[in-house]
Amino acid sequence: MLSERRLEVLRAIVQDYVGTEEPVGSKALTERHKLGVSPATVRNDMAVLEDEGFIAQPHTSAGRIPTDKGYRLFVDKLAGVKPLSSPERRAIQNFLDGAVDLDDVVGRTVRLLAQLTRQVAVVQYPSLTRSTVRHVELLSLAPARLMLVLITDTGRVEQRMIDCPAPFGESSLADLRARLNSRVVGRRFSDVPQLVQDLPESFESEDRGTVSTVLSTLLETLVEETEERLMIGGTSNLTRFGHDFPLMIRPVLEALEEQVVLLKLLGEAKDSGMTVRIGHENAHEGLNSTSVVAVGYGSGDEAVAKLGVVGPTRMDYPGTMGAVRAVARYVGQILAES
What we know:
Elements: H1 4-20, H2 26-32, H3 39-51, E1 55-56, E2 65-66, H4 68-78, H5 86-97, H6 102-117, E3 120-124, E4 133-142, E5 145-152, E6 157-163, H7 170-184, H8 192-196, H9 205-223, E7 230-233, H10 250-257, H11 259-267, E8 274-278, E9 290-297, E10 305-312, H12 317-337
Antiparallel strand pairs: 1-2, 3-7, 3-10, 4-5, 5-6, 8-9, 9-10
């Protein structure tokens, strides 16, 4: 275990390196921070930190920089989440409150996260499999043709056309709409099949075929393997950090272009609480020089999707974690109120 003083030295090295982009020396540390010890003692502490693998010397006669292991300890033990200022919180709320639909919410969230953190922002669309039913609408398009509209608690809308086996009157349609909503509104998708299985039997025999067709279409919509979608923004921010990527930036950009890679990254985030993956903790080789900060968001206590940012390991972790958490909270509120 490192002593409290050495932890403070590590904290100071991380803060200075993130702020200045320059390797940090013992003299600079004692001048910038009130460590209460001599430069010689700081040099000794830095030697111990280097032996333990928390810092490294990039080249001869240079100062030291944090390693992935050093950043990990900083995030786990030393970094609080930096709260956003009142103007920042108001700006987030005002920007997101103007969204008109789910696509707009996700698009605004990506732009906002990229601006706040100056990193690459990634936002996953809410997953249908984790949603509940807000409303089922049935509209008559022709005597034997209907439109089914499924609206989820996250604001997602799915539409399906239905060709009925026989004409279906307006009164029967209104009856089916009312009975269907009374059973499924507010229920998880996985519960719906059990809730509606006996519904056709409660209708007149001439209407049962159409009711069964409508229910089949609804259930197909609920269990369909809809493609997981996400939106990415702020990729150009990476060009500001060219020297932070030891080889070249191309492997990072190629990894960010692969949606499967990003979905896997977000999938590793816990539903509740912050997940930070640093450097080589990211399984994809192209992202070994980056850190990922992600968190779940949702309309209630349960996360329906994830959002986060990708940037170099030389990252303002407290500020980035604070921004990601705040944006996720506001997005969750918007989904709950929409």
